[in-house]
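User: quick one
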Amino acid sequence: MMTPALAAATARVAAHRGAAFRQRTASLIGFTALVLLAAWIGEVDLAKLARGIPMIGDYLWRTVPSLRADHLADDFHDWFWGLREWVILLGDTLLIAYVGTVFGAAFALLLSFPAATTLASARIVWPVRRMLEAARTVPTLVFALLFVFAFGLGPLAGVLAIALHTGGALGKLFAEIHENADPRQIEAIRAAGGTWAESCRFGVLPQSLPGMLSLGLLRFEINVREASVLGLVGAGGIGEELYLAVRQFEYTDISAILLLIMATIVALDSLSGFLRRRVIGVL
Amino acid sequence: MNRAIWLLCAGFLALGLWRVDASPQRLWDGLAKLGWLISLMWPPSFGGVLPQLLAALAETVAMAFLGTLIASVLAIPLAACGARNVARFWPLRFAARRFSDSLRGIDTLIWALVFVSAVGMGPFAGILAIAVPDIGVLARTASESLEAADRRPREAIVAAGAGPVLALRWGLMPQVLPEYLAQVLYLFESNTRSATILGVVGAGGIGLALTDRMRINHWDEVAGIVLLILVVVAAIDTLSRRIRMRLIRA
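Assistant: Done. Structure below.
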């Protein structure tokens, strides 16, 4: 026997379920439409996809070198024939990333104090933040293209591109760390007669330093990845050699260089993870 | 000890500056030329081909969207194989983790270069180039959140007689899904940025137009295109941040 109250409650539950179902169906249809629209704009052609997959497989298969068990050393030597030059170029890539990160971090450090709302007035914070935003929104590669025109071919353009983009990215993050610093230490220095610059140096910086170092290391990892492609536009590093290998269809060279890049990045990531955990003590 | 570390860092810096040939003379000349290029950029223009540029931008966003979508689907099985509480067989876990590490280690642009030479120029190569490294990124974060998930719901489902697939679907997935979707959206934002430059190697999108204008020295149009990119990236960021906030709160 169903009381009127129970009947009403059941009806409400049914209505709620109906509404939830309708909403889910509507969002599913909307999402499917979005996928189809994107597929149409992106010229995704299923026939081309079907033809493409064996082509990718074939391409990847060609990059596998012939290694025979009885001539393993010789075959490795043939595969990594350019090892000496590649290692030098990888070293250059690391140096580009390192110098770019250092200068970018210095640029970020200078601008992070006027970009922190707790340290500067709103009139100063706004333009500095917009500047940092512009520097980090333009991709590194676009800066690199521009700098190759201005500074000529070579790693200098790459270093400057990485420094500018890093400055924008780290500047914002550093400013956020400064904003979280304990204000009492800043007040103490101001009360003792310190200038604004001294309060930043002795009040904020000691508190922010561990976090900043950790973010800087993280950025260095990202920048090594970015530096590995700068060679594609003539801005130095291993990318140039990779670009040549791909363009000239030197299949086994492609796999050799890619493996070297992967090994470097994996090694570096674990080293930097270790440094971040052990030396600095914060994640 | 501390002084040794500082000396080492300074030494690397000096070595780097020497290797990149950063003489003050070269910097000064370059800055002068850069100033001249920037003066050529004013006023930004669209060269009378705004509709074509907008179409290229739409293509860029579509590439990022489809690439992220493909990666988000393909990363799930790989994530499951890499999670300690799902894959008990450690060699499988090890292989899955190293595989996703190596996908992740190579930049999108290098994948684009490879795929352009494998399947030809066009946005299709760009979609693949975006999807492949993201499979690695998503598989790693998802397997970490699977490992951090509460095991009790899963045990309840196993106790009720479910097999391993059903236990994964109903015991673990509901816990990690909101976080996973937020991560996917975040990658979509970052992919929109990467997709803008894939055209440099011929993988579709606005990047091709950008490098073309640079090659023929139409710097006012370069500035116009960069402004368009900034507007689109900002719009996508805002949209995706709103959705992420809703996902995390839900």
